[in-house]
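It is worth pausing here to work through a concrete case rather than discussing structure prediction in the abstract. The textbook approach is simple: state the sequence, then state the predicted structure, then interpret. We follow exactly that order.
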Amino acid sequence: MNWQRKMNKALVRFTGFQIERVGKAPLSPPVPEIRTPADPLTDRLLEAPVFLLSPVRSGSTLLRAILNAHPALHAPHELHIRRLRVQFDTKLASKAMEALGHNQADLEHLLWDRVLHRELVRSGKRFIVDKTPANAFAYQRIAACWPDARFLFLLRHPASIATSWHEASPGKRTPEEAALDALRYMKAVERARSALPGLTVRYEELSADPERVTRDICEFLGLEWEPRILSYGEQPVLEKGLGDWRDKIRSGTVQPARELPSEDQIPDVLKPICRTWGYLA
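Step two, the predicted structure:
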């Protein structure tokens, strides 16, 4: 068998391929149980984190910037915590953690909490706000990880979302592909909105009457409204995947929303969600 290993090493070195015996497909690892913290007082450092759940291109970076200007709220760039994973390299490691009462998901939740808590402590503020759009796909885990979490749901006209998503990377996706891709986020947000308590905010209303909408948000979060949040100031340069990087968000003030599309401009695939969200009769 030694010659086979030597041959495989040579193949990998010169071709990048190797020979493998055909057999049964490996079994997928079991999905760990998702559960609330066993001892919230010791298992969690964060208190009442705020999660802004929204589709892509819905104005979440604008709302993040507004909230970050509040003296009690720290709203950093998109953090993508749901992609921070923990793994057991050996069965003994798994067994040792099990003896302590931890499964893989428990440890990931400890990691998520520690990362966000560290960021909050460094900011010197009271509450953290995470606005990563992909969090909508993990709303059940987030709610289990932090039972005291508060949720803001940001909606925007679905056709405007799709258009903006296409314009963000026109060479990457066609308008039709942008509509279908953005619809995944919209459906995830709607599932979360149906399952969790929270406050729904509309981008068009935020753009048209930012004082009224931000007063509603502050009341929901139990905070005093601060006039300074309407002029949130200069934003650091952001990259794709961490927030909106275009000039409009860098202006430092709330800008008017684009004109709402007419019914004949709405792709058929988006009309059901338009009706659900009240943008279409």
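Step three, interpretation. The longest strand covers residues 150-155. The mean pLDDT is 88.
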